[in-house]
Each structure stands twice: as C-alpha cells, then as structure tokens.
C-alpha cells in the first residue's frame, strides 16, 4: 500500500508540474508578445527623435527587446510541445532557450540602466549642438524633421530656450528669411511665423526641449525595464518548473 501510495503521489506531482508549466508557457507567450510590442512601440513612437541622440544605445536596447520577444514567443510554443511530449531532451532544450533569453534581456536591462544614468548629460552635451548646427542644412533632412516634430509635439523651442536659435547656422544665414526661430516653434504654424519670438507667438517652455525629451526617453526606459523584469521573473519560475518536471520524468521508469 505504501509503495502504491508513493507512486500515486509521484504521478499527481508530475501532472501538477505539467499543468503549471503549460500555464506558464501561455503566460510566457503573452509576455513575449508584450516585450516585442514594447520594443516595436519604442522604435515607432517618436522614432524621429533617435536621430537627435548622440549614441545608439537607446535604439539597440529596443532592438534587443524585439529579438528577445520573438524568441520568447517561439520558446513558449516549444515549451508547450515539451510538456505534451514529456521528453527530457525537449525539456533540456527548452531550459537552455529560457536561459539564453534571460541573458539577452539582462544585457538589454544593463544597457537601458547605463543609458538612463547618462541620459541627461548626453542631451546637454549634444542636443543643442545637433539642433543649431544641423537644422535645415543640406543632407540633414532627417534631423530637420526630427527637430520640427520635437518642438511641435512637446510644445518647446530650442534645446534650453528660444534664444539658442540666435546662434544657429540656419538663423544666421540668408535662407532663414529673417526668422529668429524655426516656424515649428510657433503655436500656430504659418509661413515666416518664426520672425516674431514673442511668448504669444512661440512656445516658451521652461527647461526647453532638453527637459521634455529627457523625460520622454526616461519614461520609455522605465517601461522597458519594468517589462523586462516582469518577463525575467516569469522565466525564473519557468526554469524551476522545467527542472522539477525534468527530474520527475527522469525518475519515472516508464
């Protein structure tokens, strides 16, 4: 009776582990879709701003998230197959995939954290230079569009304030046609509206576009970090369940 009871108890535990791992894989697949969605959203939403950044760390973090999300979705399907087939080799492969994805997300998290720490300094050093030296210059159309969108979306003018534009290459040239700020600084854009820099005509945001862009990027980095941590916690649970089920199947003589 004792031996039979132990066998029944072992079968019950194996079944429970199978169901737990199956439910985990469904959640893991959803989490993978969320990770990939956040990565795509990061690149698409306000993607023009990436051309204003001195380094590509922010974009690289997003691409890593997309890669990790795609791998998570594929791995979630593999995990379901491994649970149904109850093969140790499939479970071992599944565990290795979970570990690989965990390491990829760890790299993305470290990059996001490092970039978050130096974000303010980078913007202060490079944004003003990028805006004043490259705006409306030949071959710099992407930066020009990015600056115009930045100023309109965030209702700001200049990196620190509107006076930054007075020393820009564009404003000191004849091409500006007497403008003191780009037309994208205007509350209501009309041709040559940038000739008048009165607060009733242009945006006078405290801290300028640097403050707005820094907050925007910081919010995105926090979302990337939160989603990454959430999925990483799921992966740790999955690896524990996988090891337990692998051990149960290994001990089962049948």
TrEMBL record:
Keywords: Disulfide bond, Membrane, Transmembrane, Transmembrane helix. The chain crosses the membrane at residues 20-44, 64-84, 91-116, 221-245. GO terms for cellular component: plasma membrane. It holds the Pfam family Tetraspanin. It is found in: Membrane. The keyword Transmembrane applies. Coiled coil: none annotated. InterPro entries: Tetraspanin/Peripherin, Tetraspanin_animals, Tetraspanin_EC2_sf. It comes from the Eukaryota. It is a multi-pass membrane protein. Disulfide bonds join 156-186. Belongs to the tetraspanin (TM4SF) family. This is Tetraspanin.
């Amino acid at each position: 009776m004792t031996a039979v009871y132990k066998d029944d108890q072992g079968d019950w535990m194996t079944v429970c582990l199978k169901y737990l791992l199956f439910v985990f894989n469904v959640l893991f697949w959803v989490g993978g879709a969320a990770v990939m969605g956040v990565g795509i959203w990061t690149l698409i939403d306000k993607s023009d701003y990436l051309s204003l950044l001195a380094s590509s760390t922010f974009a690289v973090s997003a691409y890593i998230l997309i890669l990790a999300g795609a791998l998570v979705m594929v791995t979630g399907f593999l995990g379901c197959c491994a649970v149904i087939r109850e093969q140790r080799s499939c479970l071992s492969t599944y565990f290795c995939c979970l570990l690989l994805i965990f390491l990829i997300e760890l790299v993305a998290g470290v990059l996001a954290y490092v970039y978050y720490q130096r974000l303010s300094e980078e913007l202060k050093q490079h944004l003003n230079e990028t805006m004043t030296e490259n705006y409306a210059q030949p071959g710099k159309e992407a930066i020009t569009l990015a600056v115009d969108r930045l100023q309109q979306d965030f209702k700001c003018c200049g990196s620190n304030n509107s006076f930054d534009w007075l020393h820009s290459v564009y404003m000191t040239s004849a091409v500006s046609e007497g403008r003191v700020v780009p037309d994208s600084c205007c509350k209501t854009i009309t041709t040559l509206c940038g000739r008048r820099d009165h607060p009733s005509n242009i945006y006078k945001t405290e801290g300028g576009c640097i403050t707005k862009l820094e907050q925007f990027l910081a919010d995105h980095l926090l979302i990337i970090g939160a989603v990454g941590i959430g999925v990483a916690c799921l992966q740790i649970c999955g690896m524990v369940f996988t090891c337990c089920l692998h051990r149960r199947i290994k001990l089962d003589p049948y």
